[in-house]
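Posted in: Structural Biology > Protein-Ligand Complexes

Title: Requesting predicted complex, iron/sulfur cluster in pocket

I'd be grateful if someone could produce the C-alpha cells for the following input. Sequence and ligand are given below.
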Amino acid sequence: MSGTYLGLPAFPQAARLSTRDEQLRANLRHATHTIRAKRATAIAELSDWPELRAAGTAIKDHTLHHLDHYLEQLETAVTAAGGTVHWAIDADDANRIVTDLIHATGETEVVKVKSMATQEIGLNEALAEAGINAYETDLAELIVQLGNDRPSHILVPAIHKNRTEIRDIFHTHMAAWGRPAPDDLTDEPRDLAEAARLHLREKFLRAKVAVSGANFMIAETGTMVVLESEGNGRMCLTLPETLISVVGIEKTIPTWRDLEVFLQTLPRSSTAERMNPYTTTWTGTTHGDGPRTFHLVLLDNGRTDTLADTTGRQTLRCIRCSACLNVCPVYERAGGHAYGSPYPGPIGAILTPQLRGTTTALDASLPYASTLCGACYDVCPVAIDIPEVLVHLRERIAQGGPTTRHGTKATIKPAKGHATERAAMRAAAWTLDHPAAWTATQRLATRTRALHPRRVPGRTASAWTATRDLPTVPARTFRDWWQHREPDPKDSQQ
Amino acid sequence: MTANTSRDEVLRRVRQALGDRPGSTPDPGTIPRTYLTTHADRTPEQSADLLADNLADYRAHVHRTHAAGLPATIAHLLADHGTRNAVVPPGVPADWLSATAGVEIHHDHGELTARTLDTVDTVITGCALAIAETGTIVLDTSPDQGRRILTLVPDHHICVVNTPDQVVDSLPQALPRLTPAHPLTWISGPSATSDIELDRVEGVHGPRTLDVILVGPPSGPR
Ligand code: SF4
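-- Reply #1 --
Done. Output follows.
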C-alpha cells in the first residue's frame, strides 16, 4: 500500500494524540451521530432490508467464489465495448500502468474522482514524482489535498475540519493550484462550495485525462458504476478525452440486475439517502459522448491474499458505505487518522492488515482497535462479521498460523515478545481504557447472553469476552493471549 | 511486471486462493432474491405523487401539468430562472418550445463544447424513466436527452417526465427497462454536498437547480 502512510505510529499512539483534539472529536461525534440517526430512518423505509442485505451478501460471496470466472468475463465485456483492460499485481504495478497511460497522452495534469483504491496505492504521490499533477475534485478531497492533509472518513474525508479551517485553507492554498479563492470569502458552506465550484470548473473545462475508481463493475456487460453527490464525478467521467479507472478486483458483480440490490442498500447505508444525487454508468466508450479512450486497471494489491483466507475473505464484500465507522465507539474517539490507512474504522481494522500484512507495529495493532461490540456487523449492508475477522486476525498475530502473502502461502510466527505484540496489546489497553469505547461495551454487555467474568482476569477483560459474538470467539486463544500479556507491566500502563 | 504476467499472476492467485472451493460453473440463480419488487401496491396516480414527494424531498422543484400545458410551464420556468439562452438535445419535440419567445435556443447536434455550454443558462430534456420510491430520474442519452454533457454543464436543468408511462415504482422495476450499453445518468435531486460540517449545500458542479415537470395524460388536467 501507499508509502504515504509508512512510518506512522501504531494505532494506540496515534489515537492518544487524536483523542486530545477536542475539535476533531466534536466534529466526529456530530457527524457520526447525525448520519447514524438518519440512516436508521432511511432503512426503516424498506421493510425488506434483511432480504436485501442477504441478497447483497450472497451476490458478493458468489462473485468472490468464482472471481476468476467473473474477472475474465468482465475483461471480455469491457474490451468488446471499446475499453482496454490492464491488470496490476500491486501498488507499484498499478502506479506504473497509470503513469505510462498518462504519459502516452502527453498531458501533465489529470482530474480525479474520489477513489479509495487510488489512495491505497498512493497514486497522487507516484504521479507527482513522474511530473503529473493530479487534482482531486471531490470537495472534501480538495480540502484535504489543499491542506496537505489526509482523509479521515470514507464518506466525508474532511469531517475533521470545520468551516473556518476550510476557509483558511482555501484562502492560503487555492491560488497555488489554480483559480484563487475570492478575497472576501466567508466561512459559510454555500460560499465555500461556490469557491470550490469556480476553482474546479476551470480545471474540468481544460482537463484531457481523468482518473476514477468505481463502486461496481458488472461482469456480464462490462458496465462501470460510480455513485456520487456533487457532480464532480460526472464531470470527470464525461468531459475528458481519456478516462482511466483504477478498481479493486473485488468490486465485480455478475449481472446488471444485481444493481437493484446495491442501489438500494449503498446510498441508504452511506449517506442515509434513498438515493445519492448522481449515479453514472458507462460501458466502454460511446461514440460522440464522453471519453474516446477508456482504460480499466484491475487492482489486486493484497486482495487475492485476503481471498485466500477463508475467514478473512468476507472483508472483500465491503461496498465502502462507511456505516460501520459511524457506529464505532473506537472510531468516534480515535478519529480516522489513527488507523494509518485510507480505510479507517472497523472496516479499516480488518481490511488494512489483510491487504498489507501484519509485519509493522501499526498493522498488527489494528485488529485490536475495537471493543468487539458488534455494532459494525449490525449495520453492515453486506453482513461482514467484522468482530469475527478481528478475533481471527488477533489470533493470527498472537499465535501465528498459515497465511498468504504476495500469492505465496506462508506461516506467521507467533508474535510473542515481539514489538508488534506489544503494539497490539497497547491498542487493546487503549480501547479498554477509553471511556466512550468502554461505555458502549458495557452497555452491550448488560444485554448479552453470556457473561463469563471469571474466565479471564480483570474487569476490562470480562468486557471483552462479553460480546454478542462470543460463540465465534475462540476463548482459549484469548486466555492464552491474556496470560501472556500479564507478565509485562509496561503494557498495562497505557 | 509486464502486462501479461500481471494478468496471469492475478488469475493464478485467485485460483490458488479459491483452492478450498472446487471449481464449478457459477450459477447466479442460487442467489436468494426474496426482497420485494415494490414496497407497496400503488395506483399510477399514487406512484406519480410519491415520485413528486421524493423529488421534492431532495430539493428538486416539481411541477405538474398535462400535455397541453407543457409549453407554458416550460416558458414559465425559463422566465423564473432568468434564462436568456437554453440548449436542447435534437429529439426534444418542437411544441415543448412553442412558448419560449425571447429565449435563445441552441439545438445540440454533438458539436457544442463544454466551454460553450458553460455560457448556457438552462438545458431542457426528457428522460428514460423515473423511479417513484427513490425520487430518481434516469437519462439514457436517447435523442430527447442527448449527450451527457448537456445536462451537466448548464446550471439549470428542466426535465420532462411523462406519467404514467415513464414512471416505475422501484429499482427492481427500473433496471430491466434500461440498457446498460447506453451511458446512464441517474439523478436524484440537484447536485449536493455535505462535506462542510455536514451542512447540505445544493450544487457544487452539476446543475444547482433541477425542475422536474410531471406531465399527466391529456385528459387529466391537474
Ligand atoms: S464493512 Fe460493511 S458497513 Fe463497513 S464500509 Fe464496508 S460495507 Fe459498509
